[in-house]
Amino acid sequence: MTAIVTVRVQREDFDTAAEIAALSNGRTDIGAVVSFSGLCRGNDHETPISALTLEHYPGMAEAEIMRHAEQAMARWPLQGLTVIHRFGRITPGENIVLVVTASSHRQAAFEAAEFLMDYLKTNAPFWKREETEDGGSWVEAKGHDDAAAARWAK
Amino acid sequence: MKVKYFAWVRERIGKAEETVEPPADVRTVSELIAWLTAQGDGYAYAFEKPKVIRTAIDQTHVQPDTAIAGAREIAFFPPMTGG
């Protein structure tokens, strides 16, 4: 059966269980499905956060995620993958991002999901702005995210 | 060429996109940043640390020494914080 690659950038929420089912239902060649959900936290260290607003670069966001999805498909024996990234205002507890990978065996599914998340963090054109009691500020990029992405380069 | 700005680069410049016509001796991304920096206080503030700024040409990441010839759309933005 053919591999299914789905990339969506959207304002609305997503249903993680439905996305997993869409990837795996009716197939008998998938032995492992890994899903990662990124959620909005209600705090940044000690600072309470009332919401995040995600700005994105329409067009490039989809294209950049698709480039990494294709790299993942080439690098691991995957039966399919799904990446959904939200934009707009998101409140604590809500979903931000979903990565689902499907493979015959777990190692490829785990590794590909981690690869996709590491590259999403550093290369997909999204920017988070935190709303706090003092107003708000742009989230700064973290060095450990760059290091996480760099370990996949070879 | 069309230029787009995102996140705090957009806020500091005060616009999301514009059309610019730099002189012919502006050949690379870093030369374009230097030229834009001289276009006003907002630009100078946005590009005060040019090494921090990330650039995409026609929706693909590029480096400071990349040539801008033929570009339809150039975007400048801070390091990304999605995911």
Description:
Chain B: Keywords: Nucleotide-binding. Chain B: InterPro entries: Beta-grasp_dom_sf (IPR012675), MOCS2A (IPR044672), Mopterin_synth/thiamin_S_b (IPR016155), ThiS/MoaD-like (IPR003749). Chain B: Belongs to the MoaD family. Chain B: It comes from Bradyrhizobium aeschynomenes. Chain B: This is Molybdopterin synthase sulfur carrier subunit. The complex is a heterodimer of chains A (154) and B (83). Chain A has 154 residues and is of the alpha+beta class. Chain A has a single domain (4-150), classed as Aldehyde Oxidoreductase, domain 3 (Alpha-Beta Complex). Chain A is built from four helices and ten strands, in the order E-H-E-E-E-E-H-E-E-E-H-E-E-H. Chain A has helices at 16-24, 60-75, 106-123, 143-150; strands spanning 4-10, 32-39, 43-44, 47-48, 51-56, 78-86, 88-90, 95-103, 126-132, 135-138. In chain A, the strands form three sheets. A four-stranded mixed sheet of chain A has the order 1-6-8-2, with helices on both faces. A four-stranded antiparallel sheet of chain A has the order 7-5-9-10, with no helix packed on it. In chain A, strand 9 (126-132) and strand 10 (135-138) form a beta hairpin. Chain A is globular, with a radius of gyration of 16 Å. The two termini of chain A are 30 Å apart. The mean pLDDT of chain A is 95. With 83 residues, chain B is an alpha+beta fold. Helices cover 27% and strands 23% of the residues of chain B. Chain B has helices at 7-13, 29-37, 41-46; strands at residues 2-5, 17-19, 54-57, 60-62, 73-77. Chain B has three helices and five strands; from the N terminus they run βαβααβββ. Chain B has a five-stranded mixed sheet. The longest helix of chain B is centred in the middle third of the chain and has 9 residues, at 29-37. Chain A binds chain B through residues 38, 54-57, 59-60, 63-64, 85, 96-97, 117, 120-129, 138-141, 145, and chain B through 4, 6-8, 56, 59-61, 75, 77-83.
